[in-house]
Fold:
Amino acid sequence: MSHLVVNLGPVREAGATARRGRSGLRPLAGGAEGGYIGGMSQTLAHFEAVARRTVASLPPAFRPAAEAVLLYVADWPEPDMLAELGIDDPLDLTGLYDGIPMTEKTPWDIAPPDVVWIFREPILAEWRDRGNVALEALITHVVIHEFAHHFGWSDDDIAAIDEWWT
Structure:
């Protein structure tokens, strides 16, 4: 499985664990898999670039809290992630927030950094299935959706204001 470790906030070690108790991520250094379709890049590095632009475009009141979250771009969700969530088909998981939402954090919480995962292959599959949305727009929506969880929004909260997810 290919992983691209993206750090949107303060400098952290590239070998830092991606999820609580997870180790052994292999950061990708150039040469990401993917390629182009119709002149559009589909590499892990392209997904990273779109995710970085998305976070950078958040309103100033939200940006610092989002920049403190680690962002991991991977081809596929890992099997234990799917098992923990009760998901059978890896194409059903385009992104994942792993952490304590800001609305539930206290100053006394001692926890690993929050992480947002973006999964390239499931996003590409949804993009091909939809056929009516730009890849960058879909990546952006997944990133915003996962960061909304960081800010304490549930899937129902997100769906109530964003028709994209209904």
